[in-house]
Amino acid sequence: METRSETDKILGQGPITINRIRFGLTILYFLSIAMGYKRSTLLQNSLYIAGTSIMVLYVTYSFLKNRFGTGVSPFLAKVFIIADVFVLCLVMVGATSEDAKLSSNVIKQVVLFTINVIYIIYAGLLLSPGFVYAVGVSTIIAQTLVVINAANTGVAFSEDSQLSITPGYASMSEQITKMLFLLTVAFIVVAVIKIFIRLKSVEEEKSAAMEKSRTDLEEGKVRMTESAVSLKENSKKLKDFSDDFSEVVSNHAASFEQISSTMEEFLAQTEQSASTVNDQFGKIENLLGESRNLNTLIDRISGHSSDLDKNMDIVLDAGKAVSRFVDGLRNSLESLGSSFRSVGEVNQIMSDVADRTNLLSLNASIEAARAGVAGRGFAVVATEVSKLAESSSENADRISKIINESTKYVQDGQKSAHTASEKVKEQDTLFENFLDSFKQLNQLLSEQKTVNERFLNSLTSLRNLSSDIETASKEQSLGANAIMTSVSSLQSSMESLLHKSELLSETITILETEAQVLASKD
């Protein structure tokens, strides 16, 4: 923190240094005015004295502020530098306003140009790159105004090397070079400022690191002292613990014999449990195989049951078709019986016609006999008609007999069809009942299959559990053997541990002594 304060004090010297340079320039300005008073005009001398007097005022203000006050603020310091540039510009504009020859000498003077360079350089003491650029641009603008005013006064610009050094003439490339030089100086000063700012940052980081190192060193010293005290206390506690540990080891040495005998009994029980679990595992394997066979049998029965179910559906559909066919046959037979009855009625009509024809033939024969010879032809016709009537009567009797027989057959067929329809309906009802029972059987088989699968899964889980138990029993047996070996090894190591505990107690005593010496030194 002290180094950082010194750096801030060095940075605070910037405005003071600038004011000292400005004070020196003021003295030089007055000396220059005194030496060139007779060569200058009244206006020029007046401008020189006015500009220099203004500088004297804020130089005095800055001196008093820096000496007796809190110092000039950075903003006011920047304003004063801009005022320096403005005063110089005002003086040079006044100097180039009278005569072309004098104006050409003014813009050619190296001293006045150098003063602009000085302004740019001491603007950098404020460590503000942006402000340095602003001052550089301000000096270029001021130089440009002076050149323009000189040109208005009558200065002729020429690039001829001989003519440009003649009074009243000047080189424009020289003026442009001066302006570019001012800009270059500004860039150089900014680069230097950035380097200084970077160095300042590095210095601040180093200061912070040194401060942190000093703090860490002090904290480390405190921690080391605390650690020495703590080491002393812990050494005492460790010694007490070592004593207690030696006593515990001595007590545990006697307990390991009891642990060894107990582990032997446990090992025997474990082997017996492993044998029992192995037998149980074999029985579960056999039961699992039988359950799988039962599950396979149920699957086969379910498959056949499904096929039989499909066949029963086909038979039921066929029975329904037969029932429909028998109903159709019965209806057809009833229609055929009705037709036969109609044919019998027609045959009865034909029998009546034959009887009437026979009666008409008899009457015709009687009339022909009455007519004698003239009625012979008519008698022949009557005889043929009588034959025809007899033949029609015989045919009607025969047709009536056939119709009666056919009607009997149709009636028997109707009775048989009715009986068959009733039997088919009863068969359909039986088939439907059988199909319902068969569906219930399929459902029971499906439920049995589900139960068997659950039972099979339970057996599988039980088999896995038994396998795990068998594996755990084997591992437990191996672990018990390993524990027995470890107990034997541990029992043999107890004496060595007890001896090392005594050595540890001696070492702790030495460590406690050294910790006490270290704490007394701190």
UniProtKB/TrEMBL annotation:
Keywords, comma-separated and alphabetical: Membrane, Transducer, Transmembrane, Transmembrane helix
Location of the Methyl-accepting transducer domain: 227-491
PROSITE patterns, A to Z: CHEMOTAXIS_TRANSDUC_2
Any one GO BP annotation for this protein: signal transduction
Highest taxon in the source lineage: Bacteria
Signal peptide range: none
Pfam families: MCPsignal
Keyword Membrane: yes
Entry's Gene Ontology cellular component terms: membrane
Annotated TM spans: 46-63, 75-94, 106-125, 131-158, 179-197
Protein's name according to its UniProt entry: Methyl-accepting chemotaxis protein
Record organism: Leptospira semungkisensis
